[in-house]
Amino acid sequence: MEKSAFGVCSYLGRKMGIASSRVRLYFIYTSFISMGSPIIIYLFIAFWLNVKKYIKKGKNMIWE
Fold first, then answer.
1. How confident is the model over 7-57, as pLDDT tens digits?
2. DSSP labels, 3-24
3. b/e map of 13-42 (b: 16 or more CB within 10 Å)?
């Protein structure tokens, strides 16, 4: 499930040194409290990780 959900929580968990389940709970709770604005942050991070992956591979994603 995590790979199909962009891997954002596991990436942030590794970088911060905490469990990815805690990061998921943070996103869920703050989404309820702030009416969904962390979802926008989540999608931005997912987009950035995807772009970063393509840059590391050396592929030109514009022409593919």
1. 788 888 888 899 888 888 888 888 888 887 787 888 888 888 877 777 777
2. GGGTTHHHHHHHHHTS-HHHHH
3. beeeeeebeebbeebeeebeeeeeebeeeb
**CA–CA separation, 7 vs 45, rounded Å?**
10
Contacts of 26 (CB under 8 A, 6+ apart): none
AA letter at 15: K
Amino acid at 30: T
50, two tokens = 């995807």
Token digits of residue 30 = 């703050």
Distance, CA of 48 to CA of 15 (rounded, Å): 15
